[in-house]
User: Fold these one by one.
Assistant:
Number 1:
Amino acid sequence: MLVSLRWLKEFCEFPNENQLIDDLNRIGFEVESVENKGAGLSNIVIGHILTFSPHPDADRLRIAQIDIGQEAPIQIVTAAENVNQGDKIPVSLPGATLASGLKIKKSKLRGVTSNGMMCSAVECGLTDTSPGVWVLPENAPIGNDFIEYAELIDTVIDVCILPNRGDAMSLIGLAREVNALYSVQQTSSLNTFLEKPTSNTSLTCNIETKSCSYYRAQKISGLKNMQSPIAWQTRLYYTGQRPISWLIDITNIVMLETGQPLHAFDASGVNTINVVSGTNGQNITLLNEKAYVLNSSMPLININGTPAAIAGVMGAQSHSVTSETTEIILESAIFEAAIIRKTSKQLGLRSESSSRFEKGVDVSGMKNAIARVVQLLQVSQPNISLESPVDAGELSVKSIHIPFDLNQMNHFLGTDFSLNDVVNRLKPLGFNVSGTEIEVPSWRVDDCCEWPDIAEEMCRFSGIDGIKSNPIETIVKVQHNPMWLLRKQLNQQAITLGLTEVIPFPLTETDINPNQPKVLNPITPELTTLRSNGIQSLIQTAGLNSSRHPMPCRIFNCGPIWDDALNESWQFSALIQGSNHYQPYLKSDHDPVDFYDVKGLFEQLMSQSDLSFEYKVGGSVWFHPGQSATILVNNQMVGSIGVIHPNMKTKYRLPETAIIEFNLNFFLDITTSSTYDLVSKYPATFRDTTYIMDSSVLVGDVLTILNSEKPDLCTNISLCGYFNKDQSSEVNVSFRMTYQDQTNSLEMDTVNDIHKKFSDSVIKKLPCRFP
Amino acid sequence: MSILEQLENIHQELSLKINDPKTKDEVIELKEVFFGKKGKISEVMKHIRSASNEEKPLVGKKMNELKVHFLTKIDQKISDLAQADLTAKLMNEKIDITLPGRRAQFGGLHPIRKAEYELVDICESLGFSVASGPIIEDMFHNFEALNIPETHPSRDMHDTFYLAENKVLRTHTSSVQIRYMQKNQSPIKIIAPGQVFRSDQDRTHSPMFHQLEGLYINNEVTLPELKFILEQILKEFFDDDFPIRYRSSYFPFTEPSFEVDVKFSSTGEWMEVLGAGMVHRNVLRAVDLDPDANQGFAFGLGIDRLAMLKYGISDIRPFYENDIRFLKQGK
């Protein structure tokens, strides 16, 4: 909300502007920007155009003689079209500085001397666009300083109003805060405007929708519309409004002052006003000259049966006030905040009015707002006549009394406020403090309902900085979070294995599963679908990297994935390229990654686990079907590893790439071995066995047999040789068995016997032989 | 010539020749010539029997003198020359020690994860336990229980991503507060780090970012206790004694509510780092806790924002582009 401090000062007292801005920030009214308006302007006066004569050498230029209150008029050459003889206008004289920084000099335009320039609102720094020179009211005093006359010197701040503080969306509301801030003991004398006596009316008014609880229409006649006083126009410009005409400007000014949105209709021929619900598909053109389509949840103001406004949002062009208007109907109403918020959202139209209604408008302030309008009208035109207002609905003022315990609050806040402190602070805000009870003013009833709300009011102003901090004494039992710990353990393990963590969005454009859930209101196509796997994100990340630089990726992510029923689980995925310890001078490290690199990586990641894994050849669409494996635990698929499919390599322009993915939910029981066995004091002996196998036999098959037939004294079986000469149909595989006893030295013969029997067990079961 | 005289001659000869050999082999040859089995000394000593009884002890003494005097010298010389040979050989094996070392590449955590772990460590040391909740949330846990009814204007503060079945991508980790309070007894002291989503995207806003929620519930909880925790966290995390500023603010689920700014010495600017407050009584009611018998505080840190401040990153977007050249800078 833009606030003119010059205007605000009419409603409250504050020490200096910088202090005020600092303090507003502290008490919950963040000042987002500060502008020193009019600061650069100089040497602009009010001039009176005496005569115009054509320029001898230019069709578009005219020569004006302008009275600026000095003995002789000055001559100005102008291209402006909207000014006439007799108009009063702002004139910048030689030496003047304008809002753009432009300096005015005496000059010649096509040979004719020009001693200044007529100014528009743009040159005065009020707006970005303007229809032409600013024509001033007839009573503007010739020769006076225009900067002073138009009140151009001002500080305008942009204050962020929090959603619970609709009451502060006005000068009066903000003034209450400022008065409380500096302990100015007044409840604001602004609520004392008097409503003037009235004559009878023939107007009728009905509410036919739940979204309006109260509607008041009052006919005012005997008006002559005109342009608003210049200083008012300046204030409107500075607070983001555009001055339109006196009658409309007044409703805006009073809204800015009181926070009560008001609307003026042209009253000619108006008999009935109905507040109704819109019809689906109904069209309406509003004052901003744009057409909107209504629906049945939007409240509408009908005048004589035709739509004249979308309630609480904006008036329509029919029944709008024009320069010819002589009588108006002044509308003030209470519309339901939620409905206005919804309507304005649906229309994509947020007006000053709707932004106030949607945060809640003070029910008790309405009559004052009307009185203020009347007061402002009468300043210029004292002889207006007022009809008695027509009311529909009820104006129900909610009242809240909060039981209050000073000691409880002080303990809660760590403060030592006295009851007097509370009274002094809250009184300017409109609260009524009486010992054990606090009465909340009508404009705060939605926001202040319980004692912590009062506590907030107190510490808000006195400042939280000053409150002493205090350690917590209670010891609360620590609770372990297995998933968090598992994720942390895997992340740490992954980085020690040379992987770099990436964090991709868990949303994607399209997923391999076409039924993945989608976001209903995406902001970009890339962030539409919840991902079903972690691989795609990593491949895309690798693709982005390889499009930018030649460094191989070794990356991982542990993040959420979802199935098509919105069930969430955590997936660990890793992608590797290149060699882990590549240096150009080393001979052996140029080989691209292959299946065994990722398998090794997986085994290392799982080295803490007691689970036993089974590998089945083949994986999902991402993988090379012959160089990938599905990982099973107890016959349940937990993940896959492998080299990516050549199609994927091509699609994402990747070098040789291998990936791992597995679902964390299966590994929640990963345990680190919690017992240590003593090492045998007796020597171990080793025996090697070589099998010549048919190439259809897998090493895993041999190991399965060896593991199941393993004699007690055999403490380890390891692969120590693998040789497949020229891709022949036979493979030589050697294993080294370790034999050791905990209690004795082993006799050579015993070991030989055991080993012989053990080695033979494979020959019996698989197509293989000894060499 | 008596044996003793012969030995004396050998002594003199050795004295003259001892410094002649230049190589190990020459020294060994010299040793052989004098001390070898067929060497000059052995030749002389063959005749020891012919020595007189008076002479014998003197010969023995002389022999010993020769050995002590020359043999140690020769052996020393042999070992010196051997060492010199080895040194020369090793110098031939000299390699380029400026080549980079052979090593496994270092991996690293994402800067956001680093910040997250650091914050979690700090909070755990302050007695908070890590809690978690689902990313896809229902309206109750994400909004209603947090005192954000459907019609409340503060729903506009959350640019929510909606899913089917009245579900949303959680807009804050505050939803974990609700889930935890529903399942656990007071006292409660938890933090909930995690991903959150808002439909907003620019230099300082990402549609997905990370928050860390804190919640403490007990029968009596005070603002000074909240201040203590927040000050500890910020001090530890930034490892710096900088000014902290509290600004009153509004969150539907806390009352009073405030935001905390930190003034960075590098820029001299106040930067907002967290929001906090005392748990709203309506939130306690929503999880069936009696607000007259329970109080609490809650705080929410933007992990991305804190990481940006700590690591001097001015744009949030590189966090999620995942260019490894950016990510690998961290040490």
Number 2:
Amino acid sequence: MSDSGSSSGAPGGGDAAPAPKSVPKPVVQKGKLPVRRPDVDTLFSINPDGSRNAIHPADVKGRFQTRKHLLWYVLIAIYLAVPWVKIGERPLLLIDIQARHFYLLGQTFNAQDFWLAFFFVTGLGFSLFVVAGLWGRMWCGYACPQTVFLEGLFRRIERLIEGPAAARAKLDKAPFSQKFFRRGLKMVVFFLLAALISHSFLGYFMPVEVLMEAVTSSPTKHMTAFLFMVISTLILFVDFTWFREQLCIAICPYGRLQGALYDPDTVLVGYDSKRGEPRGTAGTAGAKDCIDCFRCVTVCPTGIDIRNGTQLECVGCANCIDACDDVMTKLGRPKGLVRYDSQRGFETGQRRFWRGRVVLYVALMLVGLGAFVFAVTKRRPFEANLVRARGTSYTVEGDRVHGVFELHLINKRSGPRTFHVTDIGPAGAEIVVAMREVALESLQDLRVPVHVFVPMAQWKAGLKCELSVRCDDPDGELVRLATAPLLGPSGAGR
Amino acid sequence: MTTEATRGHTFDGIEEFDNRLPNWWLWTFYLACIFSVFYWIHYHTLGTGNLPIKEYAIEQAAAAARDEAAAANNPITEESLRELAKNPAIVEEGKKIFHDPTRCALCHKPDGSGLIGPNLTDDMWVYGGKAMDIYTTILKGRPGGMLPHESFGQQFVMRSTAYVLSIKNTNLPGKPPEANAKKEQ
């Protein structure tokens, strides 16, 4: 990431806060090699030679941690439970790729409704814009599945097996023979969890009944699903074991967009440099509130120093806020040296909620979600299309023109419905419908043969076969017209 | 304020550092480059790999060859179809197809006595009443409304033919014979 750290216009790192646009000085401690410190010019998680610098965030407790962990457990439960939840007979959320059926909150969709996804996805996308414009990477630190599973599950288990941050860093450097057992145990547990999560993830794309059947039978019977599962398990395993914060820093497009979504009133995790600078241990002459204890740095899961201002690596996890509040409390100083605030807030103490960009993002979100909701409530509950039978045009039988059609009915409701077919025209024609009453299950379809006989005397070009299809629906009777042009001999009957 | 650590260009006060890319990132790039060489040689230089259109054609040809082999091993003849019609298990399978309210029964009624389609239980046939005629009618369709059923597969057509042969000449009262139907035993 050659442009990493170029945090232009960032609160704290901007004009008002004279944070050190640092030329990192190696900090030399007695009898130790120079220690690399985070700076704004490089990625701390990548060493100068391009290799990975594993980040081992230290333990931290505090109000935001408590809230986050509560939220994470709820979210993990939701993420794992959703594939199993049903509303009535239908899944709460299922994108059944094989059957091309989609279920969302009791609504059923088929392939013809796919255009609705555009509004749904843009609506959700702009709601993330709203969150980013107001509170920065709030989503990333609190609700993104990557964070929720990494910090709420995998990192906790790592802490349990390998110990606190210092022990984990030591284990990294330990010879293979010494770390074999702990590392091996961790890998096994991580792999099993990755498999569990990827199965749950697959449950969003195939019905759980089919999934369970597949899981309990031989892989050779469903090779595609099995391979998908193996590959997604491996991807999750590598992600949560090794790749971790690199995903948020280098891969996630939402993270890369953030800089364009902020303004000086966006509330972010920041450092009050007015209150903190110059730094110095308690008692140093001229030193203000920051005692340069580096707690905010050691607890950071992406390896930044928040005192350098907002940086693209920051996922808004608030670990540094809790860490600093703890230190300030111990020193008897007010909390909030590191806190949620906007650039304007840090400079002038003022905040603004509604700005042009927030209004715009909210409007765009409402357009997307509004159009989706409107279209869902107004969409046709069933399809009734009259199409000419494949490979036919017309035949003249005696003094009548005979045309063959198929009435294609699709029930798009979430329950069974009965359809009644009555003929409207053309007048004087005999219309034979193979089934006048059709009962269809949810998302079932049927092609009903329809034969039309028009007396030659009444035949003229431009005649249409018109059928009326009525659906008995609890929400009221619904009627649709199905029409198709009739073919016949030119010049006949004129 | 270009320094030696930056690339030397500025836009709106934003400069680009010249840090080394992460090794994992470089490796994805190197592996993609190596992969592309083999891919290009395999698919485009030597032509040893099949591009999607060719692969589709090969699968189509393989399916056709399978069908032909099956037909050669078990040719469909007047006699073989009559033989099938004597097998109660096959006729029962054909009956299931015929009685499916979305298939034959739609036009011919479940008992075959005719609705839109002709009465199949009499001895009057528009397109021929021999086993092979009935088979061809079901397989390829006929003008006047009979739909083709090739897409359902040979087994489907054979079974329904067997059922039609089994109800032929049972003379149920139903739709009167068509004007262009001919008497045939």
Number 3:
Amino acid sequence: MGNDLPVVPEPKEPTRRRLYVLAIQGMGALMGAAMGIPAIAYLFSAPRAPQESAPGQSNGQWVEAGDVASLTPNEPVEMAFRRNRVDGWKVISEKGSAWVVKRPDQSITAFGSQCTHLGCAYHWDDGKDQFICPCHNSLFSLDGKVLAGPAPRPLDRYETKIENGKLMLGTLRESSGSQS
Amino acid sequence: MKRRVDAAVGWLEDRTGAPGLIHHFLYESIPASSGWRQVFGSVAVFLFLVQAFTGILLAVNYAPTPGDAYNSLRYILTEVTGGRLIRGLHHWGASMIIVVVALHMIQVFLYGAYKKPREGTWLVGVLLLLLTLGYGLTGYLLPWDNRAYWGTVVVTQIAATIPVLGPYLTRLLGGGDSVGVVTFARFFVAHVMILPPLTMLLIAVHIFLVRKHGVAPLPGDEQVAKKEFYPGQVFRDTFAIFIAFAILFTMAVAVRVPLEQLADPSDTTYLPRPEWYFLFLFQTLKLLSGPLEIVGTVVLPGAAVTALILIPFIDRGKMVRVAKRTTAMACVALAAIGWTGLTALAVVTKPPTTAAEEIDYSGPTDWMGLSPEELAGIAYFRAENCASCHGMGEGGSNIGPDLTRTSIHRDAAWMIQHFKQPGAMRPGTSMPAIQLNDSQMNSLAAFLLKLNPKNASALENAPDFAVQGALVYQANDCGSCHQVNGVGTNMGPSLNGLAKRRSRSWVEQHFADPPKLSPGSMMPPYKFSAKDMERLTTYLFSIPE
């Protein structure tokens, strides 16, 4: 270096220094907010609803699941169907399924096909007359109530209606947390 | 409080040494002459960080394949909160970083700050410049609109002209026969996986070298005491960064970055043009054709880079005052004149854009979903100045009722009667009778029935060519054989997505003599005026699939 002169702070006056530090912090905070707030909104807010009448919005859309006539009372059947779903920038057609139970009084219940614990697919065990989730051994009764295991609430149910002998499924409603 | 902080800092110092390092970094001594002219390097690093940050955010909602890239970008622009801002920052940030890097290099060049022992710092800087241009080149493809696609076709073709290496380079870029999925994957990987780590490494080396050799002093600095980097110079850097950020943010908010039509390899009318900072090269290529072409694609750019690399080894004299560095100033002036001249020439000779190129597909596109009849209704709506009395939503005129809600309780028959004799349907109304024929009134009524608060923006956004094109469509009764958006008959093919199936020139020739181009076609020939032809085809080409 070859420079024996002392290094002096810049600027020399303490008030000016404090002003500089304040300005640096202020500008930094402003820029941080200008970048950070939009970034948080970008990452955490739900995307705007797709254009009206976009096909596949499951709300209010009914899909046909199958024939009601083929059902035997108290014997759950897994019915597969196809429905459209908005997936990011696409509308995809995907397969879904529901466990459908006809009660002796002819009323029909359709359960969502995932266990309410952690979303595994459960199945009906004919021998035990129970729905069994193989992941963590949650057991559900014919009317969806939790009999045993870690499941926090009864099975979710689809809105249902019958048109010309066909079972139509609407929105999947989350069951309430309480259980009997 | 202060004691607690000190204790925490002390704890961290003992464990990591970080506070000491930061202190060492901030209280570095710099020449007394340092000041505002040295801020550009910091601004460039800051802009790099902004690009990295916004780039990561964009990637979160982006699918890097030709099929999905365009749609996912549209999704970011139209549906994700803040998506347009983030994309705007990334887009304009790319341009800004070029400007700032250029200013940084000019400053260093003018002051001769690359001289011994700082040759290495300069060389790393030249590499960083090349990387910056590499980002621009590879990022250009990623929206996968027409602009991106055709720009990339040209780039891969230029790479192919390089002697000996050309074919290998083209294969490396994945552009063997045509630009496609492989090219896309390679450009994406280069843009987000290869360039960023390289840049970070080189920036680290660059800053390390700056620190190792110290900020370049001016002649006479030895006589004056050095000063500390913090807070004086840090303030200057931060202030410059703040100004740059304010400009960038304003541009991202105020200047819309358009998204063109989805890449269309069959579009023979598209004229690709590069980003503004490559326009000078584009223009050079125009001036050099035939065997001279290689001069523009390889020799000149190669010579320029070589010259930049050699500068510190050619100019090896002692540091002198800037005012005495006339040769350096002449070089900068000459380069600036050359660059500006070529860029200006490219801008001036730009052919007028066609209406189709001006459609911004990233905007609200409600009008694209209207049927030709409804779209033609917009033309009558505008021609009859309906909006001067009927407001649309808030802030509009309220002499007449808000038409976005009429469709709820009126039907077409009522409306048409009302157009003819306003007073008969609504006694006491001040609305004048509308002078249109029956089919025109049908059109207007059809549009008004479709109008609701959600799609009212279509009224303002529907571009004139589309509205006029729809009028031509209606006047020639195209809908009696074709369908658009599900309206019409299917005697002829549906016209949705025509742009994907046919080129413009094909469609234009087809109008004149349909059976010649599609044998067996029942379509009669049409003779349109040049203006009508332009409007109708542009409109048809804008209808999505």
Number 4:
Amino acid sequence: MEALRVEGLTKHFGGVSAVNNVSFSIEVGERLAIIGPNGAGKTTLFNLINGQVSATSGRIFFLGQDVTDLPTHLRAHLGQARAFQIISLLQRLSVLDNTLLTLHGTKPSRFKMFQPVRQFTEVYDQAVETLKSLDLWEKMDEPIKNLAYGEQRRLEIGLGLAIDPKLLLLDEPSAGLTKEESADIINIIKKLGQEITVLVVDHDMGMVFELAERIIVLHYGQIIADGTPEEIQADQRVREIYMGIEECIDHAGVS
Amino acid sequence: MDWFITNMLNGLSYGMVLFLIASGMSIVLGAMGVANLAHGALYMVGAYIGWTVVVKWKVNFALGLLAGALGGGLVGLGIERGLLRHLYKQLNEQVLLTFGFVYILSNLCLWIWGGMPRMPFTAKVFMGPIELFGIVYPKPRLAVILIGLILAVGLWYLQDRTRIGAVVRAGMDDKDTTMALGINLERAFAFIFFTCAFIAGAAGVVGAQLLGVHTELGLDVLLLALIVVIVGGVGSIQGALLGGILIGVIDSFGKAVFPQLAMFTMYLTMIVILIVRPTGLLGRKI
Amino acid sequence: MGISRREIGRSRAVRVVLFVIVGVILLINPFFLSGYGQGVMTRFLCFALFAMSYNIVFGYTGLLSLGHAAFFGAGGYVVGVLKLRYDITLFWIGFPLGLLMSTITAALFGIIALRATGIYFLLVTFALGQMLYSLAWNVKWLCSPGMNGITAIPLPDLGIPGVTLNSTSFYYIVLGFFLISALLLHRLVRSPYGLALVGIREDESRMKAIGYNTWFYKWMVFLITGFFAGIAGILFTYYNFFISPKHLGISTSFLPMVMSIIGGLGTFLGPVIGAAIYILVETLAGTALPERWPLILGGLFIVTIMFARKGIWEYLLRLWAETSFRDGSTKS
């Protein structure tokens, strides 16, 4: 079963094509990484899949359904969860408020107007559980901006997972994190089950090669390689474009 | 045919006034991201000063125009340098602050000039009618069209052909890079604001030929400016010109055919544009 | 956070005491005031309700709408027209119809205005409000003979034989509506919907990504605030004896904004405090310097922005924050 399929996806911004005739598909449970130099179109691709940006042409299928014209919030209901390149948590609100908001987002109770939020005990309990498992329960009343960057990232991804998504979109999860914090995130993702499909964009080759079963390389908005980590490593074009990849691979100790 | 020409000229002259009113507001909004709700009040100040110079002191119209423009410009500059520049990027606060000046300036004008509305006035040279295209048409209205066109060309030149225009457009597109290039954005902004306030004051004197002068102008003119900006789009002279003329013409013909509709045709146009093209006909994305 | 139990207990006590004092004042003041004074208190409550409702769309949701007086005045105009054209003064007809009109107007405004974003949204709401103003000014059917606006609107008839309202009894009716509305709005603000509004203000893009149909939330906010602004406007019209196009236009739209900012934007009771301050200044200026009132009002705007941007409530807010620490409310 395909979790995601993208056909002939193209996005023009004025005269520039950020994404140019991109086609690929991901099976349920797959761990796919998308890499490429800066400006290759990776974030635009995510924005297309998640709905922040509408395609110039092409189609996007999520779990078999054509979502090309579907607004973002409905894609969340279908099962997409996303962590953004710049942490998107609401900085001035508390950890608990952010958690409650995220959990309610896909539940019908989000429209309730006359009962206090805390009275929705099922959701509240889930929030408590989630925060405890992320080791952030003590900080529940802290505004997000007071948390360390690594904690914020952990929370953002943790919240994304708390709503039982089918597709997890991670946009540069390791950006701004220390080695330990990155390892932390890698562990969280490794523990995920086969019902969740993971799509990662990152520059940290260590993380990419540890997590990904398959890698797509994007360059100037086009796919130039698609294969297993070994195949990508060996691909001559990729090596040329991505100078220094050998160094990164050696450092990460991947064979 | 006469009916058509008369109303067309009415529409064009009114449209020119609208353009002059709206252009300053649109540029400040587009270039600096500042919503200056006192723009109509600056028009009013210019109109009152112009009246004093031309009608009360019986000095010539050109000087009255200059005086009104300077008056508007200086008051505007005062507001910007004194208070507004602390509020960049804070839309809510700007709106409240500038609207406060509508009240203050309106009441001050009331205090100084009294509550009697002033009749439209014009230069001696423009008084009376002229024969044109087979109809008899008042010269002041033609003067408005002429002056409006001259100013439009001048402003377009300023916007598209001069260095300051380029700075403004760069600042509109990317403030940080512009500043990183060593351009003194603060001074540029003060200059832009002054210029737009200057235009507002000038518009007050030019428009006085059609609209007269009274203390409600601050609000009335603001509303007109906003409608033109919504229709024409923010940030360009061309947008203000197109919006102004379009609305002026629609309003004139609307009033000629359905006199009881008053300002309704304007509002209708605005709503249609909002539905069809929310950023205005020639608007830049802000 | 290092707040001792005693501090919480003490802050809570202070909160309760404050509430009681204000409550008592609100309840017994008519007995100490002349008809004029009672009128001022009634006016205060109407504006306080208007400001509280506006604060939901402006402070909590972050939408700078400049057309809200349209909802305030629309209800009032229905009441006026019912009296002027149909000689109906029954509360049970005027109030519901007026409220319906306010809410429908808000719904329509919302659909149009929400097509615009950022600065355009502001411009559009402004123009829509002025459109209604212009309508009320020009349409003869909406005017008492010889003037702009409708006059001679009496206090409502409750349809109960032998009962006629006077300024004191009407004050208590207004107080009742104010308290019930305040309670409902308070619940709204603490509900999941209310929390979502704050989320939309902080980062609408994220809210969409986690499943919220933000357009719908914003449109509903128009309806809700239009509804409560309508209540305020209808009660105001009865008190004021007179409704004018000005009550639909920008000059009235700005008032709840000023009040909200003075009192403390995005706090629940900030607008009420702001309304109290405004009414105070207005009453004082009215007796001392009536001709310069617009000047003073403009000055009030300027002073508020340059010096009191966080609002007077900011100081009291700390007390609230500390007492809200663990009693089940959300802090935003």
